[in-house]
Structure formats: C-alpha cells, structure tokens
Amino acid sequence: MTALREGPAIVAIGEAMVEFNQARAEAPDSYVRGFGGDTSNMAIAAARLGARTGYVTRVGDDAFGRMLLRLWSDEDVDTRGVTTDPHAPTGVYFVTHGPHGHEFSYLRAGSAASRIEPATLPLGVIGSARLLHVSGISQAISASACDAVFAAIAAAKAKGARISYDPNLRLKLWPLPRARAVVAATVAQCDWFLPSLDEARILSGHAEPAAILDWCHAQGAPVVALKCGRDGTLVSDGRRVERVTGHRVNSVDATGAGDCFDGAFAARALAGDDPFAAARYANAAAALATTGFGAVAPLPRDAAVRALLETPS
Fold this sequence. Notes:
With 313 residues, the chain is of the alpha/beta class. The chain has 11 helices and 13 strands. The chain has helices at residues 38-48, 63-74, 123-127, 136-140, 143-158, 176-187, 197-204, 209-219, 257-270, 275-289, 302-310; strands spanning 10-13, 17-22, 31-36, 53-60, 77-85, 92-98, 101-107, 131-135, 162-166, 192-193, 223-227, 233-236, 241-244.
C-alpha cells in the first residue's frame, strides 16, 4: 500500500495566472510567457527555499490551467487543494516596461479563481497546514473569494495554524474604503503582516514608517515586516524595531520580489527563526528575485540566499 504524502506545512490561497512579460529593447513587441499570481509566487518561493508548500485555487480546464498544474508539479507545490473549473478560464496578465517601471494589465474578470467560495474549500488541506498565507488580491477578485479567504483563516486558526497576510493593495480591483475595511478585519486575525511601505501609507493614512508600524499594531498585528524596496525592511514585534538594510544587486525587474519575501519569511519562521532573522533572510531572497525577469524564474534557492547574506555590504 502506497503511503500518503505528508501534507504541506505552508498553504497559500488565491489566484495564479499566466504571465506575458514584454521583451526588452531588442524586441519590444514580443512577450515572454511566464507565470504569476502573488500567492502562487509565495508558495513557489517557499518551496524553492526548502519548505513543504501547497496551493488552494481554481484553474480553468484550458491550456493555461494545465500549464500552471505542470508548474506546481515541477516546483514541488502540493496541488491537492487545486480544483479545475470547466466553466471559467484561467486568468492571464501582461507586463509592460517603461521609464516609470513596470505596468500590469489583467484579463481576469470571471476567472476560475474568482469563483472560489467557502463551501468548496479543501478544508483537509487547509487544516493540516502550520501556516496559511493570504493576500488582499485574493480578497479583491470577487465577493465569494473574499468570503473564502476569511473561511480559510477560520479553519486554519481552529487547527492552530499561524496566518501570514500581505495586503498587496490593487485599487484597480476594489475601492479604497472597502479595501481598508477588509484589510483591517484581516490584520486583526493575522500573526505576520507583510505590507509594502507604499501600500501601508495608503491604507493607514500615515506617511512616516514609525507611525505606520504603530497603526499596524493597533489593528492587531503582532509582527509587522514593512517592506521598503531597495531600502530594506522595517521589522517590529511591538517591543523592538529593527531595520534590515537592503542588498546591492543588479536589479532588472521587481516583479514578484514582495511575494518572494513572503515565502522566504514564512519558510524561515517555520524553521525556527525569530521575525528579525526571518526578515534578514527574506530581504536577501527578495533582492535576488529582482535580478531576473518575470515573477517565477528568478526566485532563488537557499544556497544563493545564504551566499548573499555572507557577502560583505
């Protein structure tokens, strides 16, 4: 009799998509196919860094959905929480590059993942995890997906799992008042809150990092890692604040760097690191994720992260 695979320690829920990333100057009208979706990126990043991960989503019964299933299989991401929807497509998005950075264009309305709902959640997969990772994008793509995220949080917490939350604010998906209300309700239930500085400024109404950290804790977050891009990360547990400085790397594309941080932080925290050590590791991993194009291809392995950490700044 074949033994069942051990369940994933880290489970993420959300929407994965196929990415078409604009080629550079030599062929600006060409696009390179890749993969994206913030929570999928997080799960793959954590898997590449040694964690057992799984994903909860819906994909279309189409070529793009099958590509994603092959991707997760290749990356050792458990797919027992993935459902194929015969009535809705897999989402796609395009990345273009210009003088002000990269811009995203999405074709995701009515996607299979937006049809996630509480009644169809794979509670066995969610309940076996030590950590559930959720994002604001997962909550913004539809009302039923938002309800499903809260139901997944309740199921995970009932089994003693910790909750990791990245608000990943996308105002094209929902109005700011609703985003603020949903984010606040979620922060109150999370163990680790992982916003970027720019989105935290919008959500909190504060400009200074110290005031933002106070706001995050006031919403109920025990641990906050405020991601500041090239300037590193501010980490606070409500008693101690530490700035993790950025790393000098040959950065070419920041797509997915924040998701990489989330996956690396979760992998190291579950391995026993305190939030400050986990953030130092995650900060290095996220820096390396900017040295290649696309959301998935440049996600680093553990040896590369540790080599960067040992490199004198």
